[in-house]
């Protein structure tokens, strides 16, 4: 029976998909036939993307009203139809090609930096060993015998190199989290310092030891030990500059999302602007609720409805500026009544959300009552059919699917939850013996961005916009912007003020009190 239902739903979904495809094709053909406007502006092109039924099954058309949507998601399979309007010109194509060239340049720069760092690190670790082995290879017979102290220095060099290798691996050999537009200044300075340091040691070694063929082998080994000690100190300097310096909070950054005004505050230390931007993005994906453009369409549609009700007649031949002023004046006269409409719309929306939420909670609780976890001794005695968590989730999901679909459409979250993701989450909750309230936590309130499918929120490229150089440090009053395709994050930097804390000592013996009696009291 389930196979027949699945087949029937698939045929229904594909018929729905083909109907939308034909309609979209006719609309696209009519739109291409429309002439351009008189002012020479390009007509917008409409691209309709059809998704097959195997993709997320919740409706994704946020512009339709709730009454006009299909509520048969629990019984049949529907397809998503999304419309995106863009106009593409030669300038856009040139910009896209430029972005591709920039991305290739960033990859080359990153691999070049890794190659230089790897070659320099290999040179650093091989230099002390070469200092010790070259005299043994070139003038072994002329060297003085190595005593007990010299042999002890071999052990010292070996363990110090091992410690340096582990510290270098822990500090530098990490998976890169992002590509920054400019070079990391402190890391570049450390690489230059190490190169100059090793070069000076090789220069001294070549002039004073190789040319003269020094026979004091213990002194040569001691020279190699001093090099390893200096490298350990440079590694300590790298820890201070790259890790410890930024730990103390010095600035407060307010991050505001440009579309809906969602904001957060973060405390940062001494960082450059580009590294501060990376910290902001890492915290954004964790702290900010997911960006939902469907929530912004309500205010735009309401404003368009108010402006659509205004009609301006050009009787005496006034220009377009006069018409615009007349429309603005008429909109201002209607402003007094618009707030009442907004109030009643929001009240009605809250009432519908509470109603759908109550239905969803009841449906999920009833569905979870049909699931019982079998213990190890009960699994052998159970006469009925046993199911794994995935099968159990598929069995109870139809009873809650309709209520969940209506709630997600009412709260405009349907584009972030596919049926497959809901089934996976339900299976996860059943596996870990979680309650219905724990299952609904993801859907009753918008969660952080990382909670959702990566393909639905992740922006592959961010653009950092700043009036100051991105390699310069944070300062009071600096503003930088992080832009992606749909919105931007505006960061405003404020310095934490200097706090002067004084001390006042109170003698514990000074806490003495008396009882003040009055004639009117009953004490």
UniProtKB/TrEMBL annotation:
Signal peptide: none
Cellular localization per UniProt: Cell membrane
Region Disordered: start-end pairs: 1-86
InterPro entries documented for this protein: VANGL
Major localization listed first in the record, in broad terms: membrane
Residue ranges with Basic residues bias: 19-35
Biased composition (Basic and acidic residues): 36-45
UniProt biased composition (Polar residues): 1-10, 74-86
Transmembrane segment boundaries: 111-133, 153-172, 184-204, 224-244
Record GO cellular component, one term: plasma membrane
Keywords per UniProt: Cell membrane, Membrane, Transmembrane, Transmembrane helix
Membrane protein topology class: Multi-pass membrane protein
Pfam families tied to this protein: Strabismus
Similarity annotation: Belongs to the Vang family.
Protein's UniProt name: VANG1 protein
The encoding gene: Vangl1
């Amino acid at each position: 029976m389930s196979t027949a239902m699945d087949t029937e739903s698939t045929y229904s979904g594909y018929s729905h998909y083909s109907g939308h495809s034909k309609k979209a094709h006719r609309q696209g053909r009519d739109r291409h036939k429309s002439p351009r406007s008189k002012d020479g502006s390009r007509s917008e092109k409409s691209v309709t993307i059809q998704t097959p039924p195997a993709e997320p099954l919740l409706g994704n058309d946020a512009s339709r009203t709730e009454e006009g949507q299909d509520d048969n998601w629990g019984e049949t399979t529907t397809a998503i139809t999304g419309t995106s309007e863009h106009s593409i010109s030669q300038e856009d194509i040139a910009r896209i090609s430029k972005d591709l060239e920039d991305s290739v340049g960033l990859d080359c720069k990153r691999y070049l930096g890794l190659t230089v760092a790897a070659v320099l690190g290999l040179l650093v670790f091989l230099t002390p060993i070469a200092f010790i082995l070259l005299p043994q290879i070139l003038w072994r017979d002329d060297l003085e015998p190595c005593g007990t102290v010299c042999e002890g220095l071999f052990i010292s060099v070996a363990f110090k190199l091992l410690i340096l290798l582990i510290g270098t691996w822990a500090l530098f050999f990490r998976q890169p989290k992002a590509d920054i537009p400019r070079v990391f200044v402190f890391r570049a300075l450390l690489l230059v310092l190490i190169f100059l340091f090793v070069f000076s040691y090789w220069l001294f070694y070549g002039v004073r030891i190789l040319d003269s063929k020094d026979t004091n082998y213990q002194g040569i080994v001691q020279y190699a030990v001093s090099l390893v000690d200096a490298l350990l100190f440079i590694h300590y300097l790298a820890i201070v500059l790259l890790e410890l310096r930024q730990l103390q909070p010095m600035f407060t950054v307010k991050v505001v999302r440009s579309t809906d005004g969602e904001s957060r505050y973060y405390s940062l230390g001494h960082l450059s602007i580009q590294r501060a931007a990376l910290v902001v993005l890492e915290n954004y994906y964790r702290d900010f609720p997911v960006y939902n453009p469907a929530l912004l369409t309500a205010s735009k549609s309401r404003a368009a409805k108010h402006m659509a009700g205004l009609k301006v007649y050009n009787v005496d031949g006034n220009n377009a500026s006069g018409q615009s002023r007349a429309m603005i004046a008429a909109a201002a006269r209607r402003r007094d009544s618009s707030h009442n409409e907004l109030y009643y719309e929001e009240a009605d929306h809250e009432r519908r959300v509470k109603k759908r939420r109550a239905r969803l909670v009841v449906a999920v609780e009833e569905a979870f009552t049909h699931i019982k976890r079998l213990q190890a001794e009960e699994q052998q005695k159970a006469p009925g059919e046993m199911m794994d968590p995935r099968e159990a989730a598929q069995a109870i999901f139809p009873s809650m699917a309709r209520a969940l679909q209506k709630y997600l459409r009412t709260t405009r979250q349907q584009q972030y939850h596919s049926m497959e993701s809901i089934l996976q989450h339900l299976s996860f909750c059943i596996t870990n013996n979680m309650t219905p309230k724990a299952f609904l936590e993801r859907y009753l309130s918008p969660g952080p961005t990382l909670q959702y499918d990566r393909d639905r929120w992740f922006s592959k490229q961010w653009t950092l916009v700043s009036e100051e150089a991105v390699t310069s440090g944070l300062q009071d009053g600096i503003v930088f912007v992080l832009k992606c395709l749909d919105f931007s994050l505006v960061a405003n930097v404020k310095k934490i003020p200097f706090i002067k804390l004084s001390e006042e000592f109170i003698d514990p013996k000074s806490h003495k009190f008396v009882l003040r009696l009055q004639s009117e009291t009953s004490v």
